[in-house]
TrEMBL record:
Keywords: Membrane, Transmembrane, Transmembrane helix. It is a multi-pass membrane protein. The chain crosses the membrane at residues 48-81. It comes from the Bacteria. It holds the Pfam family DoxX. This is DoxX family protein. GO terms for cellular component: membrane. The lineage of its organism: Bacteria, Pseudomonadati, Bacteroidota, Flavobacteriia, Flavobacteriales. It is found in: Membrane. Its main location: membrane.
């Protein structure tokens, strides 16, 4: 029961972030452009879709492995395209982006752990 509640809460987190990609798309697009992301408008929309679908799969339990894969895909792409701290000069920005990079990988490992526990069932 606790695992289901935690999965639902994690799904809500991703779903809300995905919805945020649509409601605040201009702000997120500007941030992506500052990080030299190609086709930032398209990528913000696609990332919003991945986040929403992944979040919904965690909430509902349907297509769970596909949802986990979508979330991992988003996080991997975001880590290497948006949070590339190694290409920055400002010390404060480097620290901020390196923390986001590490956070993304922590979440990826969590999602992989969830996927592994699903495959064991």
């Amino acid at each position: 029961m606790i695992k289901q509640i935690l999965l639902i809460l994690l799904g809500v987190f991703f779903l809300l972030n995905g919805i945020n990609h649509f409601y605040n798309s201009k702000v997120i697009e500007e941030y992506a452009e500052k990080r030299s992301l190609l086709a930032s408008r398209l990528m913000v929309k696609l990332s919003g879709i991945l986040l929403c679908l992944g979040g919904l799969s965690l909430i509902t339990g349907y297509f769970l492995l596909y949802g986990l894969a979508a979330l991992c895909l988003f996080l991997i792409i975001a880590s290497f395209t948006i949070h590339k701290f190694w290409a920055l000069k400002d010390r404060d920005t480097i620290m901020l982006e390196s923390m986001h990079f590490a956070k993304n990988w922590a979440i990826i490992f969590e999602l992989l752990y969830i996927g592994d526990s699903i495959l064991e069932i």
